[in-house]
Write a structure and sequence with these properties.
The complex is a heterodimer of chains A (about 475) and B (about 475). By secondary structure, chain A is an alpha+beta fold. Classes of the chains: A alpha+beta (about 475), B alpha/beta (about 475). Chains A and B meet through β16 of A and α9 and α10 of B.
Chain lengths: ~475, ~475
């Protein structure tokens, strides 16, 4: 292949599908408190046990295929990939080799660049190995088969990303898409990547970095590896094709094996699983029930007058987008709802280090708050304070605002009284203002705000003060 | 008394199943000391079941002793496919076929000896530490394989008994022929493989062995059920049966190439007599050719079977079940040590052959090509079944050999003796050995093959010949 960029990156991403049961048996597909409790003869690979395909995964894979405009296979065929490893119950993994369920396909990055796919296929997850401390120092290895046989979707991209930043954005877009399709649990699901990296300086000698978890780690690992390779070349070392591991704790990659010791997996069609025909009807049914995806939502929101960045951020998480859409159903104006979700809701969520799902915000009260602010019943400042309070616990927004006297003061008599008091109490500032200091006016505004306990709208106060001060000078 | 009569008497409470099983257990212990037909006799288990049947005497096999090939899982009873690597392995579940038999009141008396994992045609490749089953007619000779123990006990038992056996490339009909009993290898997909310790999953079939066709049929009708736990099990709606025919309407194809070279003289004689008898009954017999089967079946079978076997046997690494060894070195050192010490010679040979056939660079030439030839073989049979109800040939080209003679055969020469049985096994066709007389005091068998899911034609024809 002829490469043109300085850096060439391709990714192989494994995402855990959120089906109720495992890929080839009826065991629950979820995390468990105790090791080896979600197991049966099939996922333990006991002699005599046989795999049976969980049909739900076909639908899941088709959703992904349709969302990425992939070519869909007409048959579901599984193969055995043979290698000996203690986490592999049968010492072979059931995966797809000959005919992946999806091929081709693409996904757009934030800037519109399209990342092409080679294939998307289904496979089973191995068990997890448990060490005491680090793998190197542990005196033992324990095996937990709870994860053994869980369904994974493997997405293989073309080598077409040109920077670690692009790889990071790709992962982000991918997670968003998987979440939108409701086939992956963005908060709890496993997502791991192997990255292929080649740089111009080495004549594009390929290095594979294994087992990187999460989109931030992808960028970190790739930035490290690019720098490391450049250093080696500067030091006059010859680059060889190799496979490296990523140690997230130390922030370094380490050599695992070179090409000479690459495994031969000796694939055969899994004779325990008969091919399953994927009919046009099956595909059509999935297509009919396809949800609206992020790019379409962004377009639609922008059409409602929502700021482009607000739209992108609201659409980046399905839960946020759904919240936004429910706000609209409640009669809240799109521009306002999007702005407040992005700026205020996300601000407090980030501050509390919570996602929208685990924060469990009382939506009814949140919408009441939105209505109060957008209807100018309370000031934005009060709204900001109340959204923070709503994060801790739910409370009756309307009642609280009334009881605490937080309603924005629309009674101009009351406002005027506060302004007059403030002018009388701020002789120095009044004098400075009259001598041309705008800053001094802000000081008096602050004074009024204090008196009103935030219920006065600052712009209104400013206007009234100007009027009063003009008049006093006339007096 | 046959199995049907026994079950009837147990149901009518005329026979006490506990007493009868106690006697059977005494008998098989005595037989086993001399002939080695069982790897395990599950006395406690059997008595417990007999007690249950006594309390509730129901089912088509109420109180009938059933032996089960060692490669078929019986819950709580060592099931090791005749291999030392699975020494001590007691499955936590019953194979579906075993479960179905138990539901009909069958009593599992023990696990029968076999070539390790089914790797052989003489039951001479038993696992390390196992004893070869000996031919009931001459202890110097082989029972055939790989279901040798099942065939031996079926012949030797002087009490009603049926055996649950298994075939990959001929492992039911071959030993049935050497021991002079009826052996039915059903259509692939007719009997669930759930609970079968795999040799080659696309070829393995579980089936009955019995003294009579009626008993074989009794067991087959019980176990031939669709099973959701086996993805290759065929739903009943998709099992297309041809309609029953009278003898004068039947057409039998005599496989031509097996009537000449390579077939022992007395076996040719016997087969000719069988054909003569069929003609006397008004059945049309005509020679047919199977050129692709003749030329390529053995090579195709050994490539596919060993490729699959080499992946199936990978799980035996001394980590989760079966034989373990002292922990030392890394994982690769450990599992290599376990496998080196506990697999027999033929198991190692087939793992190596099968791994080679699927390695990058050889995969296209061997594994994938064999898969394509297999499709051709199936087509060749399909074509014949448009005009014929059954195909006929001898079951094995030789009389049961002595162990000394077997020892002098090269592995390839041994593989070649499967020539008559690998065809129907590759094509997944039902086939049955029918004892058809004796030569030099040893049994000779006839092989009948029918179209997919047409076991009833085999039974019908068998009954005509038997009667």
């Amino acid at each position: 292949m002829q490469f043109t960029t300085d850096i060439v990156i391709g990714l192989e991403v494994h995402a855990g599908l959120n089906t109720k049961t495992k890929l080839f048996c009826g065991c629950p597909n979820r995390k468990a408190e105790q090791p080896n409790t979600l197991i049966c003869p099939v996922c333990l690979g006991h002699p005599g046990s046989k795999p049976v395909v969980n049909r739900k995964v076909i639908e899941y894979a088709l959703r992904m295929g349709i969302a990425t405009q992939s070519k869909l296979a007409s048959e579901l065929i599984f193969s055995r990939k043979s290698y000996f490893y203690p986490d592999l119950a049968k010492n072979y993994q059931i995966t797809q080799y000959e005919l992946p369920i999806c091929s081709g396909g693409k996904l757009a990055l934030k800037d519109g660049k399209e990342v092409g796919f080679i294939r998307i296929h289904l496979e089973e997850d191995p068990a997890s190995l448990v060490h005491q401390g680090s793998m190197q120092e542990s005196p033992f290895v324990l095996v937990d088969y709870n994860r053994s046989g869980s369904p994974l979707l493997e997405i293989v991209t073309k080598p077409c990303m040109a920077s670690p930043e692009e790889a990071r954005d790709f992962m982000k877009q991918l997670i968003t898409t998987l979440g939108y399709l409701n086939i992956f649990d963005a908060n709890d699901g496993i997502i791991k990547a192997d990255a292929n990296l080649s740089i111009r300086e080495s004549g594009y000698t390929r290095v594979e970095i294994k087992n990187i978890t999460g989109f931030k780690e992808i960028e970190r690992a790739l930035i490290y590896e690019v720098a490391r390779q450049k250093q080696e070349i500067n030091d006059g070392k010859n680059r060889v094709q190799e496979t490296r591991g990523w140690d997230a704790d130390k922030g370094i990659t380490f050599s695992m094996r070179t090409k000479e010791t690459e495994a031969d997996y000796g694939y055969i069609i899994d004779p325990d699983l008969v091919p399953i025909t994927i009919t046009k009807e099956m595909i059509e049914e999935v297509r009919m029930r396809m949800p609206e995806l992020a790019p379409q939502k962004i377009q639609r929101y922008a059409g409602l007058g929502v700021d482009r960045t607000d739209a992108e951020i609201v659409a980046s998480e399905l839960e946020l987008a759904e919240l936004f859409e429910r706000a609209l159903e409640e009669g809240i104006k799109p521009v306002f709802a999007a702005r407040w979700i992005r700026r205020e809701l996300l601000r407090v969520l980030n501050y509390n280090k919570k996602s929208i799902t685990d924060a469990k915000v009382d939506e009814r009260q949140l919408f009441t708050l939105f209505r109060l602010v957008s209807g100018k019943k309370i000031t934005e400042k009060t709204g900001q304070r109340l959204i923070e309070k709503l994060m801790d616990a739910s409370f009756d927004m309307q009642e609280y605002v009334e009881k605490e006297g937080l309603l924005a003061v629309s009674d101009s008599g009351q406002l005027e009284q506060w302004c007059r008091e403030a002018i009388a109490e701020s002789t120095k500032a009044v004098e400075d203002y009259k001598n041309g200091s705008e800053k001094s006016l802000n000081f008096i505004v602050g004074h009024v705000m204090q008196k009103s306990r935030g219920t006065a709208a600052p712009e209104e106060v400013k206007g009234m003060l100007r009027n009063l001060l003009r008049n006093t000078s006339a007096l | 008394m046959d199995a049907r009569e026994l079950a009837e008497k147990v149901r009518a409470r005329k026979i006490d199943p506990v007493q009868s099983i106690k006697e059977v257990l005494q008998k098989i212990k005595r037989i086993n000391a001399e002939y080695h037909y069982f790897t395990t006799i599950c006395e406690e288990n059997a008595l417990e079941q007999a007690e249950q049947v006594k309390r509730n005497p129901k089912g088509k096999l109420a109180g009938v002793p059933v032996s089960v090939k060692d490669c078929i899982c019986v819950k709580g009873v060592e099931s090791a496919a005749g291999s030392r690597i699975l020494e001590g392995y007691k499955p936590v579940f019953d194979a579906t076929a075993v479960e179905l038999l138990r539901e009909e009141g069958a009593i599992i008396i023990g696990k029968t000896s076999q070539d390790e994992f089914g790797f052989g045609g003489f039951s001479a490749n038993v696992g390390i530490g196992h004893q070869k089953p000996l031919n009931p007619f001459d202890r110097q000779r082989s029972c055939g394989g790989s279901s040798g123990g099942s065939a031996g006990i079926t012949q030797k038992a002087d009490f009603p008994h049926i055996s649950l056996a298994e075939s990959t490339g001929g492992s039911i009909v071959n030993p049935a022929s050497f021991c002079g009993v009826v052996g039915l290898c059903p259509t692939y997909g007719a009997v669930s493989r759930y609970g079968l310790l795999d040799y080659a999953n696309s070829l393995d079939k579980i089936g009955p062995m019995a003294k009579s066709i009626a008993e074989a049929r009794l067991m087959f009708d019980i176990i031939a059920q669709h099973d959701e736990k086996d993805a290759t099990s065929v739903p009943h709606g998709q099992r297309q049966k041809h309609k029953e025919k009278n003898p004068e309407e039947m057409r039998i194809g005599i496989i031509s190439y097996v009537m000449g070279d390579g077939i022992a003289e007395p076996i040719q004689e016997h087969t000719k007599k069988v054909i003569e008898r069929l003609r006397q009954k008004g059945i049309a017999c005509k020679e047919v050719a199977l050129p692709t089967v003749k030329e390529f079946a053995i090579a195709t079978y050994y490539l596919l079977a060993t490729a699959e076997a080499s992946t199936n046997l990978a799980k035996y690494c001394g980590m989760r079940y079966g034989k373990a060894e002292q922990l030392k070195g890394n994982f690769n050192d450990y599992f290599s040590d376990v496998r080196s010490r506990n697999f027999g010679k033929e198991a190692k040979r087939r793992v190596i052959l099968g791994t080679f056939a699927r390695m990058a660079g050889y995969r296209d030439a061997y594994y994938l090509k064999a898969a394509k030839v297999r499709t051709k073989i199936i087509e060749e049979y399909r074509e014949l079944f448009k005009s014929y109800d059954t195909l006929l040939s001898p079951t094995v080209p030789i009389l049961p050999p002595t162990f000394e003679e077997i020892g002098n055969l090269t592995p390839l020469a041994q593989y070649m003796l499967d020539a008559l049985t690998v065809g129907p096994n590759l094509a997944g066709l039902p086939h049955m050995n029918l004892p058809s007389g004796n030569a030099q005091g040893l049994p000779v068998g006839t092989l009948l093959t029918a179209d997919h899911f047409n076991e009833h034609i085999l039974f019908r024809l068998g009954e005509i010949l038997e009667g």
